[in-house]
# Entry
Amino acid sequence: MSRKILARRAVCLVLCALMLTGCSRVLPTVKKGSTGKSAIPETQAAAPTETEPAPTVPPDGNPNDVTCKGSYTGSGNDSYVVAVAGEEPLTNAQLQAFYDLEAATWYQSGSQPAPDWEQGLDTQICPLDSRLTWQQYFLGRALASWHSYVALVADSRNAKMPLDPEYKPYDGNYEKYMTDTMPAIAYLYGRDPSYKVNSLHQAFIDGLPQTLPGASQQLLAAAELANYAYSYFTFCRFFSELSEEELARQAGEYSSEEGYTVTFRHILVSDEETANALLEEFATGRKVDEPRFGVLANTNSLDEGTRLDGGLYAGIAPGQLAKELDAWLFDPARTAGDTAVVKTGLGYHAVYFSGREDNSATLAQRAAWLEKDTDLIRALREAMPMEVTYSAITLSEPDTSIGYAQALYPDIAHEQIPDVPLYIQQDYTESRYGAFPLASYGCGITTLAMFASYMADEYLTPPALAKRYGSYCHSSGTDAVLISDAAPELGYYVLTTSYDWRDAEAYMQQGYKAICLQHKGYFTRGGHYLVLRSLNDDGTVSIRDSNLYNYGKLHPHKDDHFTWSKIIPSGVNYWIFQDKITRIPACSRCGDNSAPQGLLQSEYLCPRCLTALSRRGDFLTACPEF
# Structure
């Protein structure tokens, strides 16, 4: 199938996801006249067919493709195996479920062209390919999707998680100091080097019978397979990057695309004096950069739509904001780092201009991802060929009540790292932290890496952060100011700091997490940092400890139940953090449109949702390609 037709499928499938979450805006749209390599949707309203289609059932055709039978409508043996990929069989009944999912997704999206859903699909020629009826077209997509899913799942069984090249553990140490029954070991970096479905995605899969009440067992099985495939597809994307060559191949295709979007942060306050004072505080602070501005927004802004994310609005198009902000942000002279106080009907905005992105670059990037994803799935299918007995296939009219919009993981508030991972500083014996060995001076940077990986939803390993923050390491260890400095730079915020353990306990009772600095005592002979992950039901504390040797000598590591009596005597600093940011209230997809009324003139999609929709659209475009 041509890439032009391929991208048209991306249009309808991503649009379906938007329609069913109450969102109607995705910017920018596909460029008219393009070759269709982008997965970005161009919304099209469904138009009902008004004329009675003439019967156009073609004769039986090639026995080796979907034209084998002019019509597949009829009854047959549901248990008959009609396709095999590798050693994976597909029965007639299972194929019907995938056929239903494909037709239902098309129907729910309102895509055009579309068949007359009141008529038999085997009587209508598909305008996308005049050789096929709509029945044959959806059959081809169903077979290709199933083939893609089993190929992805098969590949996942041997997939290795990419590990930091400086990660060099000595296995004998694990055997000496740790046991597999220690709860924290389940989160040990590198312990499961191969791919594993994360807990949030697994919970969705386990809950499919409740999510899809009334669905047949065949459809539930089809949805389960699709979700395992999508989880692995997401894993592949998580550890993948676009090369300059991949981007360059697409850049020329969209070089004539005009216009741009802007990204900015703002602090909404009620009076001009406060706005000016905040800008002055920003300009004279120890750090004059965007993360520092985000801290001020997080602390002071009246805009609850993005306050928790440091006042960030990304991918804003011309005319999408209150006119005064729009005029300042889209001034051609605007450059990154510019600040100003702008008055609107909402109050006064202290604004920080982060930058702009040309629509051509955005489109080229998304097209490059679709091409990369499509090539991956093609390669996996080629490595696991499918054989189909088309003559044995029988189909009934599709059930359009459940499509992928309902059956596939929604990717709202998606987290690739849903719990705090465990890094061991002694696993990096050849790494440096400033002028010192990471293995012996690195408890602070390793603790930061554990916490930041969870909060930023990215594997920020100790060596990676040691390179970035090496100036914070001194002969006595990590400078405590790093814990606060790094937070906004890595995408999260400090809620409060305290020297009193009772404050930490009170906030942790509300579900917050903390980092604690220990002086000489139970945990260390010098100084040591710990992640206070959560409170257990009995009031004890679950801890992430970077020191391998503590797992051999501290008895509470056996069940991860540390009493406060172990923490209090040497605990000198407590940093309590705001919750991990997974939803943006201003977003019309993952939030509740809670930006101040009048700030946004159209619906807003946060960067997380735009990324998720693009990834989801690529999956639903590349898998059914045939």
In short: The CA atoms of residues 58 and 220 lie 33 Å apart. The mean pLDDT is 91. The domain at 171-193+417-577 is CATH 3.90.70.10 (Cathepsin B; Chain A). DSSP finds 21 helices and 16 strands in the chain.
